[in-house]
TrEMBL record:
Annotated source species: Ottowia thiooxydans
SUPFAM superfamilies: ALDH-like (SSF53720)
Classification via CDD domains: ALDH_F6_MMSDH (cd07085)
Keywords: Oxidoreductase
Keyword Transmembrane listed: no
Protein EC: 1.2.1.18, 1.2.1.27
Name of the protein in its database record: Malonate-semialdehyde dehydrogenase (Acetylating)/methylmalonate-semialdehyde dehydrogenase
Enzyme class per UniProt: oxidoreductase
Superkingdom of origin organism: Bacteria
Aldehyde dehydrogenase domain sequence ranges: 21-484
Stored Pfam families: Aldedh
Molecular function per GO: malonate-semialdehyde dehydrogenase (acetylating) activity; methylmalonate-semialdehyde dehydrogenase (acylating, NAD) activity
Length: 505
């Protein structure tokens, strides 16, 4: 399969185990490496989304009563199918998102680890039990499924982020309606078809492609009990407030502006190579990407810049289908224009542009959305390139005098998704991890993305809601706790009427 060739079909929806389409409204899907239309995606109407919700509602009673071990076995089979189809999934991701194939494989692998975690469902759902909570009284807590749940996902991890959500939701006994990003919808739909092959009954997972109309239907329909969202902060805030108003449980993960602190005692060579991947990997289109390096002291800033300039000069930018490239194109033309606009803005605001990727041309791919790596020095708080999420290959150096000054910048920033510190000083690292107001923190680890058996989430305006995504928090999010207290009266424990509150006194 050569996915650089245009595909003419329309990507539809998966409802009740069948692929269906909405012919009335469609939108083109572009190949970011060529600027050509790759195909179209159907945009679900309210009525189509309601069909998907109805299908999920019908499937719920039987799925809820399916033993967790049987649900888990579906996840184990899905893991095998995902591994067997990894090359094809990576090609679908690269064709629509643009990221380099190896990086697409990496994203899929992290998604597979969530499926693997979901296959531990029987263990995770065991609950808690107390014998003799009172005389002859046993008490236990169960995690009961919610019903129909929904997920709305962003373009930047089209396979992984859906896999953060629905495998745990369905392993916990819920049914699910997924609304992937309309910019790169094919991999999520393909994976949902694999789930059917793995034995997931029709209706347990439905996929609707679409835009605001589909999202608003999911948000307002009272049959949907919980919504997981990952995307930009303004939309996350909207999803959270609308979903909560409609009485739903909502977790809405938003945008980011992650800072890395480099201390004067850091291993600079290691920090430079770590920052190259963190800033420019996936063209900076990662919510855990690091677009700002806070250097403590001018000496370390100058050393970092020298190292970064050398490494950037070696970078290869080109189509993601060629694994020898380090970076592919940005996702769409409007996004390319937006990121380029931020570089213009940074120059206008007085930051010093040391490396300018705006003129990059990739031979044979002149219409692709390629922007070369950009590097700024003297980025300062208050500049738009400091405050706002750029989501592109634009790295800025911020110079501070002390660790406390750097930490204050991070703590004052509206986002709090990820951060890291590069140092050889254990005391500084411990102080940093203890006091920094950010949800995911690395020590000499640039992208501290929690593994599948921990949970993922930022603080401040990077997450609206209480529970983080996947891992142990997903069990809490996708289940309701029910606590049962039971006694079987017998001659020994039979009591008369009691009017004072029972206690263990
Ligand atoms: P986005 O907010 O534009 O879109 C996300 C989803 O919301 C899509 O499915 C889209 O169809 C839907 N949507 C968009 N506009 C809407 C509207 N007005 N009403 C209702 N629904 C709407 O985000 P994106 O550009 O696809 O993804 C990039 C963003 O996601 C970045 O801000 C990035 O930081 C963030 N992100 C965050 C995390 C995290 O874990 N915190 C992970 C990945 C991406």
């Amino acid at each position: 399969m050569n996915r650089e060739q245009p595909v003419t079909s329309t990507v539809g929806h998966l409802i009740d185990g069948k692929i269906v389409s909405d012919a009335a409204r469609t939108q083109p899907i572009f190949n970011p490496a060529t600027g050509q239309i790759n195909g179209h995606v159907a945009l679900a109407s309210k009525a189509t989304v309601e069909q998907a919700i109805a299908s999920a509602e019908r499937a719920f009673p039987e799925w809820r009563n399916t033993p967790p071990l049987k649900r888990a076995r579906v996840m184990s089979r899905l893991k095998t199918l995902l591994e067997e189809n990894a090359d094809q999934i990576a090609q679908l991701i690269t064709a629509e998102h643009g990221k380099v194939l190896n990086d697409a494989q990496g994203e899929l692998q992290r998604g597979i680890e969530n499926v693997e975690y979901a296959s531990y469902a029987p263990e995770l759902l065991k609950g808690e039990h107390s014998r003799n909570a009172g005389p002859g009284i046993d008490s236990w807590a169960e995690h009961q499924a919610l019903g129909v749940t929904a997920g709305i996902t962003p373009f930047n991890f089209p396979a992984m982020v859906p896999l953060w959500m629905w495998p745990m939701a369905v392993a916990c006994g819920n049914t699910f309606v997924l609304k992937p990003s309309e910019r790169d919808p094919s991999s999520a739909l393909f994976i949902a078809e694999l789930a059917l092959q793995a034995g997931l009954p029709p209706g347990v997972l439905n996929v609707v492609n679409g835009d605001k109309e589909a999202v608003d239907t999911l948000l307002h329909d009272t049959r949907v009990k919980a919504v997981s969202f990952v995307g930009s902060t303004p939309i996350a805030e909207y999803i959270y407030s609308e979903g909560c108003k409609a009485g739903k449980r909502v977790q809405a993960l938003g945008g980011a502006k992650n800072h890395a602190v480099v201390m004067p005692d850091a291993d600079v060579a290691n920090a430079v190579t770590a920052m190259m991947g963190a800033a420019y990997g996936s063209c900076g289109e990662r919510c855990m990407a690091v677009p700002l390096i806070v250097c403590v002291g001018d000496e370390v800033a100058d050393k970092m810049l020298a190292g970064l300039k050398t490494e950037i000069a070696k970078m290869k930018v080109g189509p993601g289908t060629d694994n020898s490239n380090d970076m592919g194109p940005l996702v769409t033309k409007p996004h390319f224009e937006k990121v380029k606009g931020y570089v213009d803005q940074g120059v206008a605001e007085g930051a010093e542009l040391l490396i300018d990727g705006r003129g990059l041309k990739v031979p044979g791919h002149e219409d692709g959305y390629f922007l070369g790596p950009c590097l700024f020095d003297h980025v300062k708080p208050g500049m738009r390139i400091y405050q706002e999420e750029i989501f592109g290959p634009v790295l800025g150096i911020v110079r501070v005098k002390t660790l406390d000054e750097g930490m204050k910048l991070i703590n004052d920033h509206e986002y709090g998704n990820g951060t890291c510190i590069f140092t050889r000083d254990g005391e500084a690292a411990r102080y940093f991890t203890d006091h920094i107001q950010v949800g995911m923190v690395g020590v000499n680890v640039p992208l501290p993305v929690p593994v599948a058996y921990h949970s993922f989430g930022g603080w401040k305006r990077s997450l609206f809601g209480d529970l983080h995504a996947y891992g142990p928090d997903a069990v809490r999010f996708y289940t309701k706790r029910k606590t049962i207290t039971q006694r079987w009266p017998s001659a020994g424990v039979r009591e008369g009427a009691m009017f004072s509150f029972p206690s263990s006194r």
